[in-house]
Amino acid sequence: MDSDDDRERAVEAAFPELAAIEDDALRAGVRRAWTTAMADTGCSDLTSVPWFPPAQRRLGIDDEFLVDHVRDVTRLAVAMAETLHDCRTVDCDLDTVLVGALVHDVSKLYEFDGMDETPVGDLLGHPHYGVHVVSRAGLPVEYAHVVLSHTGRTTVDPATLEAEIIKRADEVAASAIRLRALDDLRDA
């Protein structure tokens, strides 16, 4: 992939959910986070990036990809936010849910090179490096919080309903992948 325009088109094709973000600056920040990650890591095809190589190796699943996972998390998170709003009149910021879900794993491009772990993966892990990625993209601190709190790989718990929703959506989406190789999630 040669140009920023090519990377932007690739990000927009991979994540059509970008169009649902109402705030232009947030939409641009998500696009910038992904295009910068692609440029920094030499990624020319987002759709070929593996979901999570350690789990994929352990479970013998080689055909799960990051874009599919991020899109699953985004759709699940939006559905939960909309359901809470409709059923309990809980006000959840849909842009925050969309943006947080779309960037929660952006730094996996730095954590793995194909199925191989990089120094970022070995020394930091994607949630920690993700803070740098979303900050560098100009996204507000609440998205760094989403990245840090979406996984048990950090000690940061979700402080907002939007962060909690994204964490739960990520857990469910990852469990659905693991069930391809397991009969019982307790064996994961």
Structure characterization notes:
The chain has 188 residues and is mainly alpha-helical. The chain has one domain (4-187): Hypothetical protein af1432 (Orthogonal Bundle). Helices cover 62% and strands 2% of the residues. The protein contains ten helices and two strands. The chain has helices at residues 4-14, 24-41, 53-59, 66-88, 94-103, 108-111, 119-123, 126-136, 141-149, 161-178; strands at residues 112-113, 116-117. It has a two-stranded antiparallel sheet. A hairpin with a 2-residue loop joins strand 1 (112-113) and strand 2 (116-117). Helix 2 packs parallel to helix 5. The longest helix has 23 residues, at 66-88. The protein is globular.
- Stated plainly, the CATH topology is called Hypothetical protein af1432
Helical region count? 10
List the domain count as a whole number.
1
The helix-strand sequence is HHHHHHEEHHHH
Rounded to an integer, what's the Rg over CA atoms?
16 Å
Order of neighbouring strands in the sheet with most strands = 1-2
For the sheet with most strands, the description reads: 2 strands, antiparallel
Q: Mean pLDDT score, rounded?
A: 95
Q: What structural class should be given to the helix and strand makeup?
A: mainly alpha
Determine the N-to-C terminus distance: 36 Å
Based on the coordinates given, report the CATH architecture.
Orthogonal Bundle
What is the CATH level 1 assignment?
A: Mainly Alpha
Tally of strands:
2
